[in-house]
Amino acid sequence: MKDCWLVIHGKVYDVTTFLEDHPGGEDVLLHASASGDATKSFEEVGHSSTATSMMQGYLIGTVEGFEGRGGLPNAREGRTMRTGTMQDRNPPPSSFLDYILPVLILAVAFGAWYYLTHYTDKA
Ligand code: HEM
């Protein structure tokens, strides 16, 4: 499923459900989302006041550092996030080493145990 967040004037909007209904088309929203801050693109279109008031229905949070600088009324309460991009929602990819290291340690431990129990002199 497509997931689309926009950052406009320091506010984060989840417009995923609005993509298909946006009069300007979903492509511009996806593109604006991918390019980081969508404020400029949003302003350049010269959206109507109807469009501006629609925005508050999609407001999900504020970009950290922008808090307290005004904004739309009736914002859904208090979530703050560092960016509006999707990267923040995904955990960092774990490397191959994360998997192989515990296996290596177990193998060495087993080797040592095997050596000590089978090959050392039992005087
Ligand atoms: C939450 C964010 C947004 C909302 C609620 C929204 C809403 C709307 C609405 C209601 C219209 C119809 C015209 C009007 O009333 O002004 C419109 C048109 C349009 N919007 Fe947005 N928009 C949003 C974000 C954006 C962004 C980021 C872009 C980036 C380029 C964009 C590009 C356009 C374009 C190109 C049109 C077409 C205008 C035309 O057909 O002449 N919109 N939008």
UniProtKB/TrEMBL annotation:
Check the record and name the SMART domains matching this protein. Answer: Cyt-b5
A Gene Ontology term for the protein's cellular component: membrane
For whether the record's keyword set contains Metal-binding, the answer is: yes
Where do transmembrane segments lie in this chain?
A: 96-116
Q: Which GO terms describe its molecular function?
A: heme binding; metal ion binding
Q: Which residues does the annotated region (Disordered) include?
A: 71-90
Q: Which InterPro entries match?
A: Cyt_B5-like_heme/steroid-bd, Cyt_B5-like_heme/steroid_sf, Cyt_B5_heme-BS, Cytochrome_b5
Q: Does the keyword Membrane apply?
A: yes
Cytochrome b5 heme-binding domain: residues covered: 1-64
A Pfam short name: Cyt-b5
Q: Which UniProt keywords apply?
A: Heme, Iron, Membrane, Metal-binding, Transmembrane, Transmembrane helix
Lineage, top-rank taxon, reads Eukaryota
PANTHER family, per the entry: CYTOCHROME B5, CYTOCHROME B5-LIKE HEME_STEROID BINDING DOMAIN CONTAINING PROTEIN, EXPRESSED
Write out the similarity annotation.
Answer: Belongs to the cytochrome b5 family.
Spell out the protein name for this chain.
Answer: Cytochrome b5 heme-binding domain-containing protein
